[in-house]
Design a protein that fits this description.
With 179 residues, the protein is α/β, with parallel strands linked by helices. The chain has one domain: 3-Layer(aba) Sandwich (Rossmann fold). It contains three helices and ten strands, in the order E-E-H-E-H-E-E-E-H-E-E-E-E. It has a six-stranded mixed sheet, with helices on both faces. Strands 1-2-10-9 form a four-stranded antiparallel sheet. The mean pLDDT is 93.
Length: 179
């Protein structure tokens, strides 16, 4: 099993780059079918979702727009219930189909915050596309539309996800190794 070190922590591979790309291709095909003839607005949740979003968006076959939001709910390896809005959409999204591209959903606080904000903006529809989902930690009862992988409540890095801004460029998903 592949291992890497970031600072004092050791991580072991849990999802390979090849498995990520295969699943992304499947989800992108489903999105193409669901949004054929429509012009959705992809909302990329920075920083973590940028690699995942790039892979999904470059496979989208129709016209689209791209917007970015930057929210924070992590401190070190722990999630918090406090959402900090660092960057938010400036475009008018009224009556638009919004596709949220999120790297990871654990408690669901961030996605719930986005649902509230986009509903206030009177969007036509909200679709969630999530790379990693931690069902054990999820605190809401709404469905997530597209989920690439369900994982346990381990701390993970790679493919856009980080530990204190390190590890985003790692081309797979690695979980914190229990030592």
């Amino acid at each position: 099993m592949k291992e890497i070190r970031l600072g004092e922590l050791t991580f072991e591979e849990c999802i390979s780059y090849e498995a990520l790309i295969k699943k992304i291709e499947e989800i992108a095909h489903q999105i193409n079918v669901a949004f054929a003839g429509k012009r959705p607005v992809f909302i990329v949740v920075l920083k973590g979702a940028f690699l995942f979003a790039a892979e999904i968006i470059k496979r989208f076959e129709g016209e689209c727009e791209i917007e970015f939001v930057q929210l924070s709910s992590y401190q070190g390896t722990q999630t918090t219930s406090q959402i900090q809005e660092k960057l938010f959409v400036q475009s008018d999204l009224k009556d638009r189909d919004v596709i949220i591209l999120e790297d990871i959903v654990d408690t669901g606080h961030t996605v719930n915050y986005l649902f509230q904000r986009f509903n206030e903006m009177k969007v036509r529809s909200i679709t969630t596309v999530v790379l990693l989902f931690k069902p054990e930690a999820f605190k809401y009862d709404y469905p997530l539309d597209y989920v690439a992988f369900q994982i346990p409540s381990d701390f993970v890095i790679g493919f856009g996800l980080d530990y204190n801004e390190k590890g985003r460029n790692i081309p797979g998903i690695y979980k914190l190794k229990n030592i």
